[in-house]
Amino acid sequence: MNKGVVRVSITDFLAALPGAVCLDVRSPGEFAAGHLPGAESFPIFSDAERALVGTAYKQESANKALELGLLYVGPKMPAFVREARRLSAGKPLLMYCWRGGQRSAAMAWLLSQAGLDVLLLEGGYKAWRQYAHQLFEQKWLLRVVGGFTGAGKTETLVHLQKLGAQVLDLEALAKHKGSAFGGMAHVPQPTNEHFINLMAMHLLSLDPNQWVWVEDESRMIGSINLPVPFYQQMEAAPCYLLEVSIKRRIQRLLAEYGRAKSDVLQQNFVRIGKKIGGQQVNVAIQALQEGDLTTAASIALRYYDKAYELDLKAKNPSQICVVVAAQEEAYSYAQKLIQLTTEPHEYA
Question: I need a labelling partner for 220 at 20 to 30 A (CA). Which of 64, 184, 234, 318 fits?
Fold first, then answer.
């Protein structure tokens, strides 16, 4: 029996999301700025059409805006139905717009008339955003993997996850490694809005009653700003400082950045030039031109080590635990961290 359109709360909407098809009927520009992870862009208006309808509403009347909207939507209706049937293919169909208003209601009505059942998000995308920010204010049992540049913090997170621990890899979500050299892969970062969506959706997959491991980060990861309430929890959480020799750290940096073009590496040294000093920049650039990556890496580490030492001084010393592993490899540190947080004498 066809149920038609059913309005549901954000919690019921998210519960129905796995295995369903989620349609975002906002404009392509709105979708690009941020959307529920996994949603399909299914715009009722183009960006230009949305702007014109909005102008008509503000400068003329609601009726004029409605008439203009119907003029745009009418010819598209058969295509909307065909595409929705193709996408759903028997799966539950979820839908939202900005506030759960006319756009999603109109599209849901159309699809219901075509025999499709639709769950409509009450409050729309705005309800999801409010829900996401509440997640960041929730109390999380965070454990922070710290260490100087090249210590292998990200690799350690990977091995922690393999060992069954809960992990939130912020750099993976932000598509940036955090430092001046962190964007060298030239992978576009998500908008800050969409990063929040990705982070919130990942938190939903975690158990708040179990430890969640994160990497020690500054407030900004490339162009991304971490949510203040969650970042404050990270700053207050116990920090496990991986003790790794300078030799091993340089080896890791060379493995990670050694294949990058020399001119790209030089540009990144210039970017931090004011902080490490012009003379050191010149030495680093000359070393790169001569193929001496070890010297260049050593200069970069001296700069980042000083910066990280300042960050550590801002932390509560009682919340810092230095971790030494039998082998200076990420899997060894991950095993040690699991041991430290499961044995009766657990730190913190």
Answer: 318
